[in-house]
Amino acid sequence: MSRVFQQSELEGIATYWRILRKDGTALGFTSHDRDLTFAGLRHRAAPGMVPSAIRRDASLESELLEVEGVLTSDAICAADLAAGRFDGAHISVGVVDWETYEFASLFAGTLSTVSTTGNTFEAQLRSAKEAFLDDLVPRTSPTCRAAFCGEDCQLNAARFTHIATLSQIEHASGTTTFSGGPAAVNMQHGFLRWIDGPQAGILMAIADTSDQSLILDAVLDETLTIGARAMLQEGCDHTLSTCASRFNNAINFRGEPYVPGNDLLARYPTRSA
Questions:
Q1: How confident is the model at residue 67 (pLDDT cuts 50, 70, 90)?
Q2: How far is the C-alpha of 209 from the C-alpha of 219, rounded, in Å?
Q3: Which of 65, 72, 115, 167 fits a 20 to 30 Å CA distance from 86?
Protein backbone atom coordinates (compact mmCIF):
# COMPACT_ATOMS: atom_id res chain seq x y z
CA MET A 1 0.00 0.00 0.00
CA SER A 2 1.14 3.59 -0.69
CA ARG A 3 -0.52 5.08 2.37
CA VAL A 4 1.67 6.91 4.89
CA PHE A 5 0.59 6.04 8.41
CA GLN A 6 0.48 8.28 11.51
CA GLN A 7 0.08 11.55 9.63
CA SER A 8 -3.01 12.58 11.62
CA GLU A 9 -3.59 12.76 15.36
CA LEU A 10 -6.20 9.99 15.47
CA GLU A 11 -5.92 6.84 13.34
CA GLY A 12 -7.32 3.36 13.78
CA ILE A 13 -4.04 1.46 13.64
CA ALA A 14 -3.13 -1.97 14.99
CA THR A 15 0.02 -4.03 14.78
CA TYR A 16 0.04 -7.32 12.88
CA TRP A 17 2.35 -10.33 12.59
CA ARG A 18 2.47 -12.82 9.72
CA ILE A 19 4.33 -16.09 10.19
CA LEU A 20 5.12 -18.51 7.35
CA ARG A 21 6.60 -21.73 8.65
CA LYS A 22 8.81 -23.98 6.57
CA ASP A 23 6.12 -26.68 6.55
CA GLY A 24 3.82 -24.28 4.64
CA THR A 25 1.63 -23.25 7.57
CA ALA A 26 0.69 -19.54 7.52
CA LEU A 27 -0.37 -17.77 10.72
CA GLY A 28 -1.55 -14.22 11.28
CA PHE A 29 -2.00 -12.23 14.51
CA THR A 30 -2.99 -8.67 15.35
CA SER A 31 -2.97 -6.48 18.44
CA HIS A 32 -6.55 -5.41 17.65
CA ASP A 33 -9.41 -6.66 19.85
CA ARG A 34 -11.04 -8.58 16.97
CA ASP A 35 -9.81 -10.70 14.08
CA LEU A 36 -8.80 -8.87 10.89
CA THR A 37 -8.71 -10.44 7.42
CA PHE A 38 -6.52 -8.80 4.78
CA ALA A 39 -3.92 -9.80 2.18
CA GLY A 40 -5.56 -13.21 1.92
CA LEU A 41 -4.96 -14.19 5.55
CA ARG A 42 -7.03 -14.04 8.72
CA HIS A 43 -5.13 -12.37 11.55
CA ARG A 44 -6.38 -13.55 14.92
CA ALA A 45 -6.71 -11.13 17.79
CA ALA A 46 -3.69 -11.55 20.07
CA PRO A 47 -3.42 -8.40 22.21
CA GLY A 48 -0.95 -10.17 24.49
CA MET A 49 1.76 -10.17 21.81
CA VAL A 50 3.90 -7.05 22.15
CA PRO A 51 6.79 -6.17 19.76
CA SER A 52 9.78 -4.12 20.74
CA ALA A 53 10.56 -0.83 18.99
CA ILE A 54 11.32 -1.24 15.30
CA ARG A 55 14.37 0.71 14.18
CA ARG A 56 15.39 0.82 10.54
CA ASP A 57 18.51 2.43 9.10
CA ALA A 58 20.49 2.54 5.87
CA SER A 59 23.41 0.46 7.13
CA LEU A 60 23.97 -3.18 6.18
CA GLU A 61 23.95 -4.33 9.79
CA SER A 62 21.24 -6.86 10.60
CA GLU A 63 18.34 -5.39 12.56
CA LEU A 64 16.89 -7.23 15.54
CA LEU A 65 13.34 -7.25 16.81
CA GLU A 66 11.89 -9.05 19.80
CA VAL A 67 8.32 -10.15 20.34
CA GLU A 68 6.95 -11.13 23.72
CA GLY A 69 3.61 -12.80 24.30
CA VAL A 70 1.46 -15.21 26.20
CA LEU A 71 0.90 -18.77 24.98
CA THR A 72 -2.87 -18.35 24.86
CA SER A 73 -3.37 -19.16 21.19
CA ASP A 74 -3.71 -22.79 20.17
CA ALA A 75 -1.75 -21.84 17.01
CA ILE A 76 1.40 -21.19 19.09
CA CYS A 77 2.12 -23.65 21.87
CA ALA A 78 5.20 -24.61 23.83
CA ALA A 79 5.22 -28.11 22.31
CA ASP A 80 5.43 -26.76 18.74
CA LEU A 81 8.17 -24.30 19.71
CA ALA A 82 10.18 -27.08 21.35
CA ALA A 83 9.63 -29.39 18.38
CA GLY A 84 11.12 -26.81 16.02
CA ARG A 85 8.01 -26.15 13.93
CA PHE A 86 8.80 -22.41 14.02
CA ASP A 87 12.56 -22.68 13.40
CA GLY A 88 13.61 -20.46 10.50
CA ALA A 89 10.05 -19.27 9.87
CA HIS A 90 9.60 -16.13 7.76
CA ILE A 91 8.20 -13.23 9.78
CA SER A 92 6.55 -10.00 8.67
CA VAL A 93 5.57 -7.30 11.17
CA GLY A 94 3.69 -4.13 10.31
CA VAL A 95 0.71 -1.89 10.92
CA VAL A 96 -2.85 -2.11 9.57
CA ASP A 97 -5.83 0.23 9.58
CA TRP A 98 -8.65 -1.82 11.09
CA GLU A 99 -11.29 0.16 9.18
CA THR A 100 -9.86 0.28 5.65
CA TYR A 101 -7.51 -2.74 5.96
CA GLU A 102 -4.67 -0.75 4.43
CA PHE A 103 -1.39 -2.09 5.77
CA ALA A 104 2.35 -1.54 5.60
CA SER A 105 5.14 -3.94 6.48
CA LEU A 106 7.76 -2.45 8.79
CA PHE A 107 9.95 -5.49 9.36
CA ALA A 108 10.64 -8.70 7.43
CA GLY A 109 13.02 -11.42 8.44
CA THR A 110 13.30 -14.86 9.98
CA LEU A 111 12.70 -16.31 13.41
CA SER A 112 16.00 -16.78 15.23
CA THR A 113 15.70 -17.96 18.84
CA VAL A 114 12.63 -18.62 20.97
CA SER A 115 12.65 -19.02 24.75
CA THR A 116 9.73 -19.90 26.98
CA THR A 117 9.17 -19.17 30.65
CA GLY A 118 6.05 -20.62 32.17
CA ASN A 119 3.15 -19.53 29.99
CA THR A 120 5.03 -16.78 28.15
CA PHE A 121 7.45 -16.76 25.25
CA GLU A 122 10.05 -14.39 23.83
CA ALA A 123 11.05 -14.60 20.17
CA GLN A 124 14.02 -12.91 18.52
CA LEU A 125 13.66 -11.95 14.87
CA ARG A 126 16.45 -11.20 12.41
CA SER A 127 15.88 -8.90 9.46
CA ALA A 128 16.44 -9.72 5.80
CA LYS A 129 19.74 -7.78 6.00
CA GLU A 130 21.21 -10.94 7.52
CA ALA A 131 21.76 -12.12 3.94
CA PHE A 132 24.43 -9.41 3.50
CA LEU A 133 26.57 -11.20 6.10
CA ASP A 134 26.82 -14.36 3.98
CA ASP A 135 30.26 -15.06 2.60
CA LEU A 136 29.70 -15.55 -1.13
CA VAL A 137 33.36 -16.09 -2.02
CA PRO A 138 34.30 -19.80 -2.16
CA ARG A 139 37.15 -20.84 0.12
CA THR A 140 39.38 -23.85 -0.25
CA SER A 141 38.34 -26.89 1.78
CA PRO A 142 39.30 -30.55 1.78
CA THR A 143 35.62 -31.56 1.67
CA CYS A 144 32.94 -30.65 -0.85
CA ARG A 145 31.22 -27.30 -0.28
CA ALA A 146 28.21 -28.15 -2.43
CA ALA A 147 24.93 -29.10 -0.82
CA PHE A 148 24.11 -32.75 -1.45
CA CYS A 149 21.79 -32.90 -4.49
CA GLY A 150 22.01 -29.13 -4.72
CA GLU A 151 22.69 -26.96 -7.76
CA ASP A 152 26.46 -27.49 -7.73
CA CYS A 153 26.22 -31.17 -6.86
CA GLN A 154 23.87 -31.82 -9.81
CA LEU A 155 22.65 -35.17 -8.47
CA ASN A 156 18.91 -35.79 -8.69
CA ALA A 157 17.42 -35.69 -5.19
CA ALA A 158 14.60 -38.04 -6.26
CA ARG A 159 17.14 -40.88 -6.60
CA PHE A 160 18.04 -40.61 -2.93
CA THR A 161 14.63 -39.79 -1.43
CA HIS A 162 12.48 -42.60 -0.07
CA ILE A 163 9.09 -42.98 1.61
CA ALA A 164 9.45 -45.51 4.42
CA THR A 165 7.28 -46.85 7.23
CA LEU A 166 8.31 -46.85 10.88
CA SER A 167 8.68 -50.45 12.08
CA GLN A 168 10.47 -50.03 15.44
CA ILE A 169 10.90 -47.13 17.82
CA GLU A 170 12.65 -46.33 21.09
CA HIS A 171 11.39 -42.97 22.33
CA ALA A 172 14.00 -42.55 25.06
CA SER A 173 17.03 -42.83 22.77
CA GLY A 174 15.45 -41.49 19.60
CA THR A 175 16.24 -44.73 17.76
CA THR A 176 14.00 -45.66 14.83
CA THR A 177 13.89 -48.45 12.27
CA PHE A 178 12.08 -48.18 8.94
CA SER A 179 10.87 -50.67 6.38
CA GLY A 180 11.03 -49.79 2.71
CA GLY A 181 13.92 -47.36 3.14
CA PRO A 182 17.58 -47.43 2.14
CA ALA A 183 20.37 -49.10 4.09
CA ALA A 184 21.05 -47.29 7.35
CA VAL A 185 24.67 -46.62 6.37
CA ASN A 186 23.43 -44.56 3.42
CA MET A 187 21.40 -42.38 5.76
CA GLN A 188 24.44 -41.05 7.62
CA HIS A 189 24.50 -37.22 7.38
CA GLY A 190 20.96 -37.36 5.99
CA PHE A 191 17.60 -36.35 7.40
CA LEU A 192 13.96 -37.34 7.52
CA ARG A 193 10.68 -35.47 7.48
CA TRP A 194 7.64 -37.02 9.11
CA ILE A 195 4.57 -37.46 6.91
CA ASP A 196 2.26 -38.98 9.52
CA GLY A 197 1.89 -38.78 13.28
CA PRO A 198 2.04 -35.97 15.82
CA GLN A 199 5.27 -34.53 14.37
CA ALA A 200 4.16 -34.48 10.73
CA GLY A 201 6.09 -31.90 8.74
CA ILE A 202 9.01 -31.69 11.18
CA LEU A 203 12.52 -32.19 9.81
CA MET A 204 14.98 -34.25 11.87
CA ALA A 205 18.65 -34.91 11.16
CA ILE A 206 20.25 -38.34 11.40
CA ALA A 207 22.72 -38.06 14.29
CA ASP A 208 24.06 -41.61 13.95
CA THR A 209 23.22 -45.07 12.67
CA SER A 210 23.36 -48.48 14.32
CA ASP A 211 22.90 -51.64 12.26
CA GLN A 212 19.63 -50.90 10.45
CA SER A 213 18.46 -48.23 12.91
CA LEU A 214 18.58 -44.45 12.68
CA ILE A 215 19.34 -42.32 15.73
CA LEU A 216 17.65 -38.94 15.41
CA ASP A 217 18.85 -35.61 16.79
CA ALA A 218 15.44 -34.56 18.14
CA VAL A 219 13.05 -35.74 20.83
CA LEU A 220 10.34 -38.06 19.54
CA ASP A 221 6.76 -37.49 20.59
CA GLU A 222 5.53 -40.12 23.04
CA THR A 223 2.41 -40.66 20.93
CA LEU A 224 4.41 -41.53 17.79
CA THR A 225 3.57 -45.13 16.92
CA ILE A 226 4.69 -47.84 14.53
CA GLY A 227 3.23 -47.43 11.06
CA ALA A 228 3.93 -43.70 10.71
CA ARG A 229 5.46 -42.76 7.37
CA ALA A 230 8.47 -40.53 6.81
CA MET A 231 10.38 -39.14 3.85
CA LEU A 232 14.01 -40.24 4.12
CA GLN A 233 16.74 -38.25 2.37
CA GLU A 234 20.10 -40.02 2.07
CA GLY A 235 23.22 -38.14 3.15
CA CYS A 236 26.80 -37.58 2.03
CA ASP A 237 29.98 -37.06 4.05
CA HIS A 238 31.29 -34.64 1.36
CA THR A 239 34.58 -36.50 0.85
CA LEU A 240 36.10 -37.10 -2.56
CA SER A 241 36.25 -40.87 -2.06
CA THR A 242 32.51 -41.06 -1.33
CA CYS A 243 31.70 -38.75 -4.23
CA ALA A 244 33.69 -40.91 -6.65
CA SER A 245 32.95 -44.44 -5.41
CA ARG A 246 29.35 -44.17 -4.20
CA PHE A 247 27.89 -41.51 -6.49
CA ASN A 248 30.29 -41.53 -9.47
CA ASN A 249 30.13 -37.74 -9.31
CA ALA A 250 33.74 -36.67 -8.80
CA ILE A 251 33.50 -34.31 -11.77
CA ASN A 252 31.19 -32.10 -9.69
CA PHE A 253 33.23 -32.30 -6.49
CA ARG A 254 33.55 -28.80 -5.02
CA GLY A 255 36.61 -29.12 -2.81
CA GLU A 256 40.41 -29.22 -2.79
CA PRO A 257 41.40 -32.40 -0.92
CA TYR A 258 45.07 -32.20 -1.94
CA VAL A 259 45.78 -28.55 -1.11
CA PRO A 260 48.07 -28.38 1.97
CA GLY A 261 46.37 -26.91 5.01
CA ASN A 262 47.65 -24.54 7.68
CA ASP A 263 49.01 -27.48 9.66
CA LEU A 264 51.83 -27.72 7.07
CA LEU A 265 53.27 -24.43 8.40
CA ALA A 266 53.48 -25.85 11.91
CA ARG A 267 55.42 -28.98 11.01
CA TYR A 268 59.01 -29.36 12.17
CA PRO A 269 61.72 -30.35 9.67
CA THR A 270 62.99 -33.86 10.08
CA ARG A 271 66.32 -35.36 9.07
CA SER A 272 65.99 -37.67 6.10
CA ALA A 273 66.85 -41.28 6.80
A1: low
A2: 16
A3: 167
